[in-house]
Structures are given as structure tokens and as C-alpha cells.
Design a protein that fits this description.
2 domains, 364 residues, Creatine Amidinohydrolase, 35% helix, alpha+beta, 10 helices, Creatine Amidinohydrolase, Chain A, domain 1, single chain
Length: 364
């Protein structure tokens, strides 16, 4: 076990004690990745990492055991298809000292059949998800995580600039996406996604990039991300061809002011919903509230979307080290959409933007 992993287990157990949680159960997921640096293939065979007050152990399918052993020295309780997982699970539960656990923290991504092993074995235990334990820790990034996220943000800046240079009338959205993907690959950060929404397609926030040809006067939403060193990037910028559509400059200015308002509101101690309200208030006051159809942001770490979520209903108290997007938008059906997105890390004096690329529109 690496020193980093040992430190994470220690912090997790401190938090478990504070929250009176005596057993954490993780399935193969980003939670497991964050804690131990890998996860076995997720399939229908139960695979669990059980974490008690002093010890931890895996319930491991035999088919995954050999490959997983190369990744960790944590104890394995291996089961095979001809016997089934129950015996190994009960042995692991005993190994970590939780056969009488009073409060289980469940990985919220866990398959229900995995969870049933715990529910059947500990029917009287209190149950919660990991919001106040492991997720609580994941939201607060350390400097190693910050460095990886910053590196990815700057790679995404360069991929965006490659897209800007390539834009020309007559090319398709898919052709532009391929150029973005090629740049990410050139920096050993494979593209994870790219939304290229041109003209009226930009009014769909999650448009599926397609074969529409870019034309003079288009506004183009470019929402892209890659991944290297186990961490992702995510950035949205705008481009126009020629003069752009009527009313573009006014709408871009409103969205930019919404970003600035959210950045100002993003300080330690603020509620996530206060940041959403700051951005949404600017857009609503300008008369476009009904066209801002999604949350203001999402957390980012090893997961592209993870807590904290910057929504109108979130009471999450923002704290130093939290990393999240600020991405308000206005989407005018049949015309165009505008979204501006930056990833920020919260410092003592406010939000630090990871990107170095201005939010001004690129004109092709």
C-alpha cells in the first residue's frame, strides 16, 4: 500500500468515526479508484472493498484475483463461480471486524445485488451513502490532484485552440471533432467527449455531434475534454463564423456576466445554491431565465462529474480545495446556444480558474 493510500485510509477512518459509520462498502467505481488507485472490472460478479474501523479487505471474484493482486496488497477473500460469493463475503466482514456493524456507508454507484449481501447480513444497520465520509474527502483536492487537473486544463486549452484554427465553412461537426480528438491524442490525453454544436444545434446543451456542415453566420458551441494521469478536463468556448447570428453579442455578454457573478459568489462558506443563484439571477434579470435549462456546475476530480453539484437546491457548504465547473448558458431553440465553462478550484480568497484561455468568442 502506498503512503498516499495509507494516508487516505487514515483520513477516511477519522471521518467515519466522526460520522459514527463503522463500515464502508465500495464496489468497483471512481470511489475505489480514488482510495486505492485502481478498480477491478465491474460485472455481475460481486466485488467489494469493505473498510472497517481498523482493517480493510476485498471480496474478490476468482476471475479478477490474479490481475488485481498486482495492484494491491490488501487482503483478498476470493470466491469462485462454483461456490458463490456469500462465504467469502462473510469472511471479509469478519476480517474487518464488522459482523455487528451499526451503520453502513454504501457506494452510491453499487449494484443492488451487491448491496443485498450487506442488507441480508446486517438487516438492522443504519444505511447511508458516502456523502459525509468518502465523498466528503474526495471533494477537497490536495495539491497533487490540483496539479493533475491543472495539467489537463492546459491541454484542453490547446485542443480548443487547435479547433479554432481549423474552423472553416463547409466542414462538418464530426470533422471538427476529429481534429480536437487528434490534438488530445498528440498530448497523450485521449479525448473523453466533444460537443460540437453548430448553428441551431447549439441550442441543445448535450447535442450529439453530427454531420451538419458549418456555414457562414454560425455560432458554434465547443465543449470538450480529455484525460491523462487519471484526471479529466472540461471546457466550453464559443466560436462564430463571420458576423455570427443576430443578437449573438448581446447574449454572449449576458452569459459572460453570469460567469463573473458566479465566480464572485464562489467563496469558502458559501452554499452551492448561492453560486447557482448568482449566475441564474443575471440571466433571469436579462429576460432569458427560461432559456437557462441546466445547473450552473458540477464537481470534477478523477470523475468528470462528481460532488459538489452547483444547483439551485444544493445546500453543500463550499470549502477550500473543492473543484467544480461554472458553466451558465442560454439556448434559443432554432437559433443558437451559448455556454461558457471554466473549471475552478476554491482557494481561501475565492475561485482560481484552471484554464488560461479567455472566454471571448473566436471569430473564424
Amino acid at each position: 500500500m502506498t503512503e498516499n493510500t495509507k494516508a487516505k485510509f487514515a483520513r477516511l477512518r477519522e471521518r467515519m468515526a466522526e460520522q459514527n459509520v463503522d463500515l464502508i462498502a465500495l464496489a468497483p467505481s471512481s470511489h475505489m479508484d480514488w482510495l486505492v488507485g485502481f478498480h477491478p472490472m465491474l460485472c455481475e460478479r460481486p466485488c467489494l472493498l469493505l473498510i472497517g474501523p481498523e482493517r480493510e479487505a476485498f471480496v474478490m471474484p476468482a476471475l479478477n484475483a490474479e490481475g488485481s493482486r498486482a495492484e494491491t496488497d490488501i487482503a483478498f477473500h476470493v470466491w469462485s463461480d462454483d461456490i458463490g460469493p456469500k462465504q467469502a463475503f462473510l469472511a471479509a466482514l469478519a476480517d474487518v471486524g464488522t459482523t455487528e456493524a451499526k451503520h453502513i456507508g454504501f457506494d452510491e454507484t453499487m449494484r443492488i445485488d451487491f448491496a443485498m449481501l450487506l442488507l441480508d447480513a446486517l438487516p438492522a444497520a443504519k444505511r447511508s451513502f458516502t456523502d459525509d465520509t468518502l465523498s466528503y474527502l474526495r471533494m477537497r483536492k490536495d495539491e497533487r490532484e490540483y496539479a493533475a487537473l491543472k495539467k489537463n486544463a492546459l491541454i484542453a486549452d490547446r485542443a480548443m485552440q487547435a479547433a479554432f484554427k481549423a474552423i472553416r465553412p463547409g466542414m462538418t461537426e464530426n470533422e471538427l471533432m476529429a481534429i480536437i480528438g487528434d490534438h488530445f491524442s498528440s498530448e497523450n490525453a485521449p479525448m473523453q467527449f466533444a460537443v460540437v454544436g453548430s448553428g441551431p444545434n447549439g441550442a441543445f446543451p448535450h447535442h450529439h455531434t453530427g454531420d451538419r456542415k458549418l456555414t457562414d453566420g454560425d455560432a458554434i458551441v465547443l465543449d470538450i475534454g480529455g484525460r491523462t494521469d487519471g484526471f479529466p478536463s472540461d471546457i466550453t468556448r464559443m466560436a462564430i463564423i463571420g458576423q455570427g447570428p443576430d443578437g449573438y453579442a448581446e447574449i454572449h455578454d449576458i452569459v459572460e456576466r453570469a460567469v463573473q457573478a458566479a465566480l464572485k459568489a464562489a467563496v469558502p462558506g458559501a452554499l452551492a445554491r448561492d453560486v447557482d443563484a448568482a449566475a441564474r439571477g443575471v440571466i433571469t434579470e436579462a429576460g432569458y431565465g427560461e432559456y437557462f435549462v441546466h445547473r450552473t456546475g458540477h464537481g470534477m476530480g478523477i470523475g468528470g462529474h462528481e460532488p459538489p453539484y452547483i444547483t439551485a437546491s444544493s445546500d453543500t457548504v463550499l470549502a477550500e480545495g473543492m473543484v467544480f465547473s461554472i458553466e451558465p448558458g442560454i439556448y434559443l431553440p432554432g437559433r443558437f446556444g451559448i455556454r461558457l465553462e471554466d473549471i475552478v478550484i476554491l482557494r481561501a480568497d475565492g475561485a482560481e480558474i484552471l484554464s488560461s484561455l479567455p472566454r471571448s468568442v473566436h471569430t473564424a
